User: What shape does this take?
Amino acid sequence: MPVTIEDLSNKLGVSRSTVSKALNDRGDVSPRTKERVTQAARELGYQPSAAARSLRRQRTEKIGLVVNYPIRRVSDFLAELIPSMATVAEEAEYNLILYTSMAGQTERLISLCRSREVDGIIIAWPPQFHETVVLHRMLTDERMPHIFLPRRVPHDDISYVAADHQQGARLLTEYLISLGHGRIAFERLPEVYETDYDRHSGYAQALRAAGIKYDESLVISADSAAADYDTKSFQHFMALPDPPSAILFFTDPSAIRALSLAREGGIRIPQELSVAGYDGVLSSGVTEPALTTVRQSAGALGALAVESLLKLIANDGLEAQQHILPVELLPRKSTAAPANGGA
Amino acid sequence: MPVTIEDLSNKLGVSRSTVSKALNDRGDVSPRTKERVTQAARELGYQPSAAARSLRRQRTEKIGLVVNYPIRRVSDFLAELIPSMATVAEEAEYNLILYTSMAGQTERLISLCRSREVDGIIIAWPPQFHETVVLHRMLTDERMPHIFLPRRVPHDDISYVAADHQQGARLLTEYLISLGHGRIAFERLPEVYETDYDRHSGYAQALRAAGIKYDESLVISADSAAADYDTKSFQHFMALPDPPSAILFFTDPSAIRALSLAREGGIRIPQELSVAGYDGVLSSGVTEPALTTVRQSAGALGALAVESLLKLIANDGLEAQQHILPVELLPRKSTAAPANGGA
DNA sequence: TACCGTTACGAAATCGATTTCGTCCATTCG
DNA sequence: CGAATGGACGAAATCGATTTCGTAACGGTA
Assistant: This one.
């Protein structure tokens, strides 16, 4: 069995309190005693019991990551997010506990709060706005510091960390305009409300700034619930009487799918059609041609989320942490100047 | 503050012990009392304190995942592994705690053991054999159940879960032979000792079974420490007086790199050269041509590792858990019959 | 009626720390 | 010299559960 504080105090002939105070730098301990205690602790390899300490201190030095999302497919976003969060937490002597099976199950989240096994919670992928507010209220009632990720939540009291998707869509659109495109198609995904709104407003903003008229027929709302959802948008746009010279897809996988559909259809990319994705997944770099996209750094989002949560824990959640991180345009080979000058 | 067992017992006018026994189904409690207690617990939303329970029960219902590896690049292996492990753990009412910053730091691992904040440990990516044995001894001394992943460790007492890499390389080689290839090049990576050994022996075995002479000049040992390591093997093989008709790369990224080198060099794949990777990363599915590879299921490995660790915890680690999981050949478009019949 | 066994419950110990508070002793000051 | 001050330490309470063990009450039997 591991060495306890009692073993240490017996060996040294001092009280448990003195040992505790010596090791934690609190209370009055003479320099000599302190030295003896630390020395003996090292020798015996004493390590305080996490459970006992947590019980007494009423904090666990652990934070929870609740993946509030059915993990359909593997994403490199998660692969970058999780280790980054864990690493940042560890720098602050915290650890990360994963909770993957409580999507939408509020009672399980309540149990988690009441059992006090974490000091704060990061909720990855908040649900729809209304539900998020309910969740926030519940967590606030339970006095559990929490932060949402990676979507912004339009509510003053709610903490979140998200990427600047308006900027992302704007950068992409501006880039295509600078290449000479005038008919730029845009895929929306209303399911992810704020993200969709931001992206669309970035797109519209770039068009407006360039004096290009917003054309409703060039904007489609995808429905990710549909089976062949990732082929529909492409087919829709190409079937238009006057097809666009460039398409901005909502996600990289859709854009990648379009790449192969175009190949099958004999449409050369980027010569005859420019295609762009969004997210900067690893796969987007190895397609032929490599995909132009926008990258949000999952690592940076995760790191900031952890840091913000630690602040909430330290400040007792006095004021909400709200952060929007810049994104990066990755211009690659799937986009080029349009053949006919974009007319 | 959360409801404690004392609050419950006060409200009901029974003792704490009775409440505890009622909720945990131990000891003698009359059906009537039990009903009253469960009812009140539900009403008040009582949830036992994790710290108090851990302290008394001497177990935490948590397992640790120690990523004993510098996470160089994002890998979809991790993205699939971690959620899978967390989910399987949760089915058994355990949770997963991540430790990403203790690669090679044995004292930190010892602290983790002694603080008893986890009931068992999964070590992702064991170090070299000798160090792994040392680690195993240390963990055994600390009476900490543990299992290594995703590499086998050739030692009877050590628990691990790994993929069958001998089978993987054999399947790939057999497949190429069945296509008509006779000169099949093979890239080794001595750095990952057992994995490399298994893969190479699967390759050699397939050749032998087909009566093809093992040609040393077709086998190269890569050095992943070198900067341009992923281009070297390809260049080496293509510079041979009599180049191979097919190349088996050690990893998908190397094979993908070879795909673009071949394009640059005007070598058509698969018509003039067959290329295969290994691991089945997501990217391998979107290259042009799509990459033939072997997939090991990170999800299955992780799930089995957790299940095995839970057995070790339950059995007090009586006998080592050693599991080798089958892999899956993914024949895709980067391999085909050789132009000249493979002569 | 006296005795015994069973049932249902509670008092108290326990897990291993932290923290509060009181005490002892040596100085220092008036 | 007596009282006040403060440094160093320990006894005991505390955190919130679980578990052991003792006992009251009850019913059945000799």
Observations:
- Chain A has three domains: 5-48, 62-163+298-325, 165-296.
- DSSP finds twelve helices and twelve strands in chain A.
- Residues 4-6, 16-17, 20-21, 24, 26-27, 48-49, 51-57 of chain A lie near DNA strand C (CB under 10 Å from a C1').
- The domain at 62-163+298-325 of chain A is CATH 3.40.50.2300 (Rossmann fold).
